């Protein structure tokens, strides 16, 4: 995926979805990012309702920490 970081067709998408991979993390989130699916899509925003469901908290902390607000 890193090869897409400087590709003009993907640069904006990569900066948004893969800032750590592209070396663009400058904030205090420590590179905290949601995991992308096999197609490179972040499905976490659509699954926000699971963030605080006791059955899914552990999974959401590892898969969707940015969306769920678990980044320290």
UniProtKB/TrEMBL annotation:
One matching Pfam family: ShK
PROSITE patterns reported in the protein's UniProt record: SHKT
Limits of the ShKT domain: 1-25
Name the UniProt record assigns to this protein: ShTK domain protein
Organism: Necator americanus (Human hookworm)
Native organism taxonomy: Eukaryota, Metazoa, Ecdysozoa, Nematoda, Chromadorea
